[in-house]
Structure formats: structure tokens, C-alpha cells
């Protein structure tokens, strides 16, 4: 038997039921995702590590769980996920230096644990520091890809 033959024999009620079930699954997943965005304060509460730049801390395929509460100060040593202008894919690296101004403005520098140099070469041209607006989230947990 072929799949299309089975679909043609299916009555309309069964077809509507399956379409409704699929729509419920998709809408539930979207609601969970949007809920995570609200609870974590991050536009992307879960990210996948795409490169080996943070080895041995994180490996390709590891899942990171993020939060991004703006009241928490960024400190050296913590792992942030950030986006830079002109790049679509967020980067996961460690904060190595923090520069705090008297007015409360914070700028910071990042570097991958497995990289030889800091990330200034990854930032947009002329940019030497990141700001809080560049941060997608901070790593709060991980799930290893074995």
C-alpha cells in the first residue's frame, strides 16, 4: 500500500483531527519557546555551540542554557553569547576584561578559551569592546553532546 492511497481513504474527520493535532504540537512548542524567552530574558534561551573555540569547556554540539538579566553585572571569567554587527551567528566566548566607566556604562572584551588572541578581530571594524546591548545571553547551564 502507498501512503497517498491511505490518505485518500481517510475520512475528513480523521484528516481534520490529524491537522488539529499537528497545529497543537507546533503552537505548544512556540508557546514554550516564548515562555522561555520571557523567563530567561534572552532572545535565544538555548543555543548550540558551533565551533571548537571554547574547548575544553564546551565542544561542538553542546547545548547552552542562557539567561540575560540586564541588572546582573558582566564580570571577567563569565561566558557570554554575543552578536556583532554584520554577523548573523552568535558567538560563545569568555569575558577576559571588563572596563567600567563612572556613569555605570560597562564595556568588555572576549576571547575563546582555545584561541590564541582576543576577539577584537571578530568585532565590527573599529570596535574594540562589546557592550551589554551586544549580549544575547550568559551561559547558566549546559547539556553535553557525547
TrEMBL record:
Its predominant location is endoplasmic reticulum
Keyword terms = Endoplasmic reticulum, Hydrolase, Membrane, Protease, Signal-anchor, Transmembrane, Transmembrane helix
**Quaternary context:** Component of the signal peptidase complex paralog C (SPC-C) composed of a catalytic subunit SEC11C and three accessory subunits SPCS1, SPCS2 and SPCS3. Within the complex, interacts with SPCS2 and SPCS3. The complex induces a local thinning of the ER membrane which is used to measure the length of the signal peptide (SP) h-region of protein substrates. This ensures the selectivity of the complex towards h-regions shorter than 18-20 amino acids.
Keyword Transmembrane helix belongs to the record: yes
Q: Which InterPro entries does the entry link to?
A: LexA/Signal_pep-like_sf, Pept_S26A_signal_pept_1_CS, Pept_S26A_signal_pept_1_Ser-AS, Peptidase_S24_S26A/B/C, Peptidase_S26, Peptidase_S26B
Q: What is this protein called?
A: Signal peptidase complex catalytic subunit SEC11
Described by its record, this protein's role is as follows: Catalytic component of the signal peptidase complex (SPC) which catalyzes the cleavage of N-terminal signal sequences from nascent proteins as they are translocated into the lumen of the endoplasmic reticulum. Specifically cleaves N-terminal signal peptides that contain a hydrophobic alpha-helix (h-region) shorter than 18-20 amino acids.
Originating gene: SEC11C
Amino acid at each position: 500500500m502507498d501512503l497517498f492511497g491511505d490518505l485518500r481513504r481517510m475520512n475528513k474527520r480523521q484528516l481534520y483531527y490529524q491537522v488539529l493535532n499537528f497545529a497543537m504540537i507546533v503552537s505548544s512548542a512556540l508557546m514554550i519557546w516564548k515562555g522561555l524567552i520571557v523567563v530567561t530574558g534572552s532572545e535565544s534561551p538555548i543555543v548550540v555551540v558551533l565551533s571548537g573555540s571554547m574547548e575544553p569547556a564546551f565542544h561542538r554540539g553542546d547545548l547552552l542554557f542562557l539567561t540575560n538579566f540586564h541588572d546582573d553585572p558582566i564580570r571577567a571569567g563569565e561566558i557570554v553569547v554575543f552578536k556583532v554587527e554584520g554577523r548573523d551567528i552568535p558567538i560563545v566566548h569568555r569575558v577576559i576584561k571588563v572596563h567600567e566607566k563612572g556613569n555605570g556604562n560597562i564595556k568588555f572584551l572576549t576571547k575563546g578559551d582555545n584561541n590564541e588572541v582576543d576577539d577584537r578581530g571578530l568585532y565590527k571594524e573599529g570596535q574594540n569592546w562589546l557592550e551589554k546591548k551586544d549580549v544575547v545571553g550568559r551561559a547558566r547551564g549546559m547539556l553535553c553532546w557525547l
